[in-house]
Design a protein that fits this description.
This is GHMP kinase. InterPro entries: GHMP_kinase_N_dom (IPR006204), PoK (IPR012043), Ribosomal_Su5_D2-typ_SF (IPR020568), Ribsml_uS5_D2-typ_fold_subgr (IPR014721). This protein has 301 residues and is an alpha+beta fold. It has 2 domains: 168 residues, 2-Layer Sandwich (Ribosomal Protein S5, domain 2), CATH 3.30.230; 116 residues, Alpha-Beta Plaits. It is 37% helix and 28% strand. The strands form 2 sheets. Strands 1, 2, 3, 4, 5, 6, 7 and 12 form an 8-stranded mixed β-sheet that branches. Helix 2 packs across helix 3, helix 3 packs antiparallel against helix 4 and helix 6 runs antiparallel to helix 7.
Length: 301
């Protein structure tokens, strides 16, 4: 086999903070709460003639393929090498990129799982996810998303690190809950996190609210604490703030995508059309869609 396609769910972070980091990449990460969604990234990995790495996103060659480069290199180290040839990666995202929907983590997982099939399954599933975790850290695209994707469903992390090192506890979610997501555009994450005031708010709010969620890991607490985290961090753009205010007025759960210029709401299925309509009216130039929380991991399709 010279080509394989993997689908990996996306991921939404409700709250988080970054504790002091150890030297070991597998033990680095963040602590927080979030959930996997049934829309994500389809990644096709192939070994072709030539050498090096080519990466395409939605059919267009990637300007900065650093995450793929790091994932392929980390996988080669873990698996003891790769077949001769050029590694070609084609990502087809089902959700907006750079919007706080876990697409970087999903892309890294897709590459690692795809390469593992191409080399005959030299790594376990957990080891492939560890490769993706390392790559995200080295490429500076994420810290805790891969652990969340491995755990699946809605969860709170209680020990940071890659799968096998970190630990997450499941949060039971009613089957009738749906996720309404609205994205106005990308978010300048690096710029925001370089702001000392923003970092301080994330640290203070995230640490306290994570402790509260870990002590009482219920869906009701997740709803309340994720909304409170967004309120305390307060990074709503002028485009998204009117939607957040409208949701508050109508008693609709809402929280900011971390980090994206957008909002999400966890609502009962019966109320989904009403909430989706509100999102579309107040984010007319954005992307609005409805999805579900999923417990599945990345898989070959």
């Amino acid at each position: 086999m010279h080509e394989v396609t993997v689908f990996c769910p996306g991921h939404v972070t409700g709250l988080f903070y970054v504790p002091p980091q150890p030297d070991d990449l597998l033990s680095q990460g963040s602590l927080g709460g979030g959930f996997s969604i049934d829309r994500g990234v389809r990644t096709t990995v192939s070994i072709e003639g030539g050498e090096g790495i080519e990466v395409y996103i939605g059919g267009t060659e990637a300007e900065d393929p650093q995450l793929a480069v790091q994932t392929v290199a980390a996988f080669a180290r873990a698996a003891g090498g790769l077949p001769e040839g050029k590694v070609v990666v084609r990502h087809e995202p089902e959700v907006p990129m750079g919007a706080g929907l876990g697409t970087s983590g999903a892309a890294a997982v897709g590459i690692a799982l795809g390469l593992n099939v191409l080399v005959g399954g030299k790594l376990s599933e957990e080891q492939a996810y560890q490769v993706a975790h390392k790559a995200e850290i080295l490429a500076q695209t994420g810290l805790g998303t891969v652990l969340g994707l491995y755990a699946g469903g809605c969860k709170v992390s209680v020990a940071m690190g890659a799968p096998g090192r970190g630990e997450a506890r499941a949060i039971e979610v009613p089957e009738t809950i749906r996720v309404v997501i609205g994205v106005a555009g990308p978010f300048p994450t690096q710029e925001a996190l370089q702001n000392t005031g923003v970092r301080a708010r994330v640290e203070e709010a995230g640490k306290a609210l994570h402790a509260a969620l870990a002590a009482e890991p219920t869906f009701e607490r997740f709803l309340a604490l994720s909304r409170e985290f967004s309120r305390r961090v307060d990074l709503f753009s002028p485009t998204v703030r009117p939607l957040a205010e409208a949701c508050a007025k109508e008693g609709i759960h809402h929280a900011m995508l971390m980090f994206g210029d957008g909002l999400y709401s966890l609502v009962e299925e019966a109320r989904t059309p009403e909430v989706e309509d509100l999102y579309r009216r107040l984010l007319p130039g954005g992307t609005t869609f409805v999805c579900s929380i999923t417990g599945e991991r990345g898989k070959v399709v």
